[in-house]
Amino acid sequence: MRLTRYFLPVLKETPSEAQIVSHRLMLRAGMIKQASAGIYSWLPLGYKVLRRIEQIVHEEQIRAGHIPMLMPTIQSADLWRESGRYDDYGEEMLRIKDRHGRDMLFGPTNEELITDIFRGHVNSYKDLPLTLYHIQWKFRDEIRPRFGVMRGREFLMKDGYNFDLDKEAALHAYNRHLVSYLRSYERMGLQAIPMRADGGPIGGDYTHEFLVLAETGESEVFYDSEITDLKFGDRAVDYDSVPECQAVLEEFTSRYARTDETHDEAVFHEQVPEARRRTARGIEVGQIFYFGTKYSEAMGATVVGPDGQRSPVHMGSHGIGVSRLLGAIIEASHDDKGIIWPEGVTPFHCGIVNLKQGDAAADAACEGLYKALLAKGLEPLYDDRNERAGAKFATMDLIGLPWRMTVGPRGLEKGVVELTSRRTGESEELSPDAAIVRISQIYAQI
Amino acid sequence: MRLTRYFLPVLKETPSEAQIVSHRLMLRAGMIKQASAGIYSWLPLGYKVLRRIEQIVHEEQIRAGHIPMLMPTIQSADLWRESGRYDDYGEEMLRIKDRHGRDMLFGPTNEELITDIFRGHVNSYKDLPLTLYHIQWKFRDEIRPRFGVMRGREFLMKDGYNFDLDKEAALHAYNRHLVSYLRSYERMGLQAIPMRADGGPIGGDYTHEFLVLAETGESEVFYDSEITDLKFGDRAVDYDSVPECQAVLEEFTSRYARTDETHDEAVFHEQVPEARRRTARGIEVGQIFYFGTKYSEAMGATVVGPDGQRSPVHMGSHGIGVSRLLGAIIEASHDDKGIIWPEGVTPFHCGIVNLKQGDAAADAACEGLYKALLAKGLEPLYDDRNERAGAKFATMDLIGLPWRMTVGPRGLEKGVVELTSRRTGESEELSPDAAIVRISQIYAQI
User: Fold this and answer.
1) For chain B, which residues make up each domain, given as ranges?
2) What is the fold, at CATH topology level, of the domain defined by A3-339?
3) Measured distance CA(B38)–CA(B153) in Å, rounded
4) Quick check: A204 pLDDT over 60?
5) Residue of A nearest to B126 (CA)
6) ipTM of the complex
7) Which of A79, A215, B82, B100 is most buried, taking the most CB atoms under 10 A from its CB?
């Protein structure tokens, strides 16, 4: 993309309404614009990152054998009356009457709807195991929306639902989700720690939240410092293998890690030596639940088992906060100049800064780099504006592309351009060809 | 995808509530399930087609230089009061009160919101031309939703908005949209004819609707039969070139083609020789508008021009009915056995039918074909169920994959599998390797 043909409305001033750094930077970098309280338009740059995150989530869910579909945003209240949650849910549910006066709602979650789909189509244990998921906009009418996309009212979430014959099979689905979530977050450049959590209104005894450590996190967390040394890495896990998935669960959840909701100071002291006890703040970016037959019993979602007997299926639900992740990543990865995108989610792979727009050699070199990157399947952002170098650098630093190529007449006389890492600030001089090779190699590993 | 691990709930019986063939086939093929009146869940197969159509729309909009972003579903009523449409819009607008009693609505379209974004960020003619678009769920509270996804209440639409300094530039944007729409529909295997249309509640003198001819179309259409000979093909059009885009507009819109809303019998007779006059029915799958300064004046969206004077921008809006296109494609492409997907939008590229599941040679050959197709970047659907051949064929015919490979012990003894076209029903025997090459070649041309 050439910046002169893009829509990147960066702000010079720091917006006064934004209390946390991710909200400030998303507004300043022209990623979002508030449409109304807690509801945002995703401007082109923000939308690109949202799509990258969504794509990672899709890829990892499909890898785990989970099946994508899509449920609508507007639901009938009738299903929620069946499960008993219509009255329970409180004012966070956005309730709507349609033109015929029927009670509808903007879905805050989808246990009822997916259970209705299941019971309408599945009848036998032979069709299990089954995990369906979707990535769809949800609405929760927060009384005080704040922190930008971190606690918005309209938000994008991946929610998946497993259907299994018995508890054992459902716990394997739980473990598959845990593994796929660890992989997903790492691909986004995040360390998200599974912590024992509270079931809340969805219910469930087995549940973990995934938390990203950040000073601005809304939850206080308590954990064994050994946990932060764990890496999922690029190990191959067979999602069909019960012991392999179970081993990952044990590795990542056996040490003490809890939010304030489940924290037990006595257990913490007993299990963790003092030198390894950590208290910090965390941002929740996902949660997995096993809740057994809570919805299948209430709604009659049963299957005939191998013994010919009909029984309610065992279910769980599993969510990733897709839009909230943008905020979480920025909270975890920024400096005083702006955002620092991890390579896995960056909106553009590389910036190109032309130090002297209009100079024939500089223009030609930038065009060459631009086309060479596109030919490698990478997306560059070429700052082709007639602006001072300082303004171009400031924009690139603010929007946080992990790599920048700087091209100017002086370097070109020596046959080099400058390649700079946004994270370390380190630069090196390379021939244009070598710079292209270097960038390709970096992204081939992502 | 292996069918035993997929969720494809095909129905044996024809659902009684469905009045038109696309609705019946989408229900029978397990593509959608009604969630409530006019609101559907997209089951895995339907979701895949929806995503393919969405992807074509994105690619062609980006090719035209239009910039993707995303606006939220829920909007504040305040902006609609500014434009004057809050009271005008009538009962089709889903009106909502949030917990604080503020008037909100589920967006049926986005002229107000995009104009608000524009006026908040753009100030100079130097930032023009600009076309922003998004693909987002809309809601129109139809009094009698029917025909499945063809006239649903919650529907997915691409809507794009151009901002230009003057009428001339805005009409070039109009032409760019016309070109990109012609390309998009052809890639989906559709002939969609631009017809002179009525502005309706969005307003505008320059507007064309794109109609797919089909007996079940809701509009009566009148046209010169020469129009159906026009093909966009794979010609290269420079979207920056005013004369090139204008030439396409003239080629595709100079002949008489109107819906009943704008039809003029006298003009029809005057312009079209009797032998070429056609009356038919059509399904609307898109519409483009130029409406000048209607919203920019009402909402104060102005720019400073080259002369230093401030003036309201010229705008247009341009829509493609993404979810409705599934219905339109099926109406235009089916037979009495089921759907016939055009290659450009098919949910899976090729079906694999194992005639004798459990036979070692047949199983091995199917596995080989399955992996070879995946290795070519294609998505096969392998029917690995323990079912009779007839049931497997019926499922494949119903869900409409354009190509099927049939694998059985007898063919394998001769070293062949059968490759069958869903559209023509013709089969040929090929070695497994040759079949893979043939399928790859077919899709390389799409």
Assistant:
1) 3-339, 350-444
2) BirA Bifunctional Protein; domain 2 (3.30.930)
3) 5
4) no
5) A4
6) 0.96
7) A79
